[in-house]
Amino acid sequence: MKAVRVNEFGGPEVLRWEDGVTEPSPGPGEVLIKVAGAGMNFADQSRRRGTYPGGPPPTTLGMEAGGTVASVGSGVSDFKVGDNVMARVAGAQAEYVAARAADVFPAPRGVDPVLAGGIPLVFLTAYHILRTRADIQPGDTVLVHAAASGVGTAAIQLARHWGASVIATASTEEKLALARSLGADHTVNYVDDDFQARVKEITGERGVEVILDSVGGDVLEKSMGCLGVYGRLVTYGNASGAPASLAARDIFSVCGAVMGFSIGRSPEGFLDHKGAMAEMVSLFESGELRLVLDRTMPMGAVAEAHAHLANRGTLGKVILTP
Ligand SMILES: NC(=O)c1ccc[n+]([C@@H]2O[C@H](COP(=O)([O-])OP(=O)(O)OC[C@H]3O[C@@H](n4cnc5c(N)ncnc54)[C@H](OP(=O)(O)O)[C@@H]3O)[C@@H](O)[C@H]2O)c1
Q1: Strands (DSSP E) along 180-279, which ranges?
Q2: Average pLDDT, the chain
Q3: Segments making up each domain of the chain, as ranges
Q4: Atom of ligand 1 lying closest to residue 294 CA
Q5: 122-260 has which fold?
């Protein structure tokens, strides 16, 4: 079969849409998926460079897929051949991928299987940051940075669904317009404007209850000044690559909580992915949630897709098709 391969870690030039890769066969408790679409994620670039957990090269990229069940391993009773599914699974950017049934979910009815391939990772991440870590409550105000990212677009929709209001930041007017179309109540360009001052103005100096930061550096540092009393800040990425330094006073003086989240490093069984996804699948089916598609690209154009993400060019998800 063909797969997006990295035979040595490095820049986009190491990416190959390679033929002759052995098709996986599902082991006990696994499901073989014929891939229709596989979402790109920011971390694909880290995996390509060798700075993301996983074994040494050669390796197949990808963290999530949508498609149909091609076969099932022993002990799998939840899925049968032909089912439309989506999965959170390493090696998804290929014609076929074998996933543990625990990480496979029924695709929402009415959602194209290609688009379903962009749902699992970002929606589960946004769900667990808001619910499991930040304990979001109706009436909270949530500050979502990098709002047009895959995770950001999911977080805005979920926060609004759970009764919060949203202040969204991004680097361009086009991205801010997307955030508003997803329900953001206020938007701020965090490159051109002083987002800390704007958040204080919007909240009447109160600050926000919840902050989602995946940018790090200055954005994380300035976010501390936006945190209201008993606020919760979740740091879950460092897209800027810049370090940040936080002052103890800024945390204790607002009785604040600064916490981290990593879906990949959460211990096995620690997070209820099946329950979270069941709740979200019904929201997709009722039209309350949607996958924001930047574009689909063929897996053969994976190097261009990496450049597009690195250039901050995306609005929502890029999905690769075999
Ligand atoms: N911890 C976890 O479990 C987990 C899981 C999934 C993703 N993540 C993290 O969540 C973030 C979003 O992931 P994603 O796949 O949804 O990302 P994405 O769609 O590729 O978007 C990343 C966004 O980060 C912003 N950004 C700020 N500074 C940047 C820089 N120097 N270079 C590139 N982008 C920059 C850009 O938005 P602006 O142009 O508006 O600034 C960009 O659109 C990433 O940081 C990723 O590592 C974490």
Answers
A1: 186-189, 208-213, 227-235, 257-260
A2: 98
A3: 3-119+291-321, 122-260
A4: 19
A5: Rossmann fold (3.40.50)
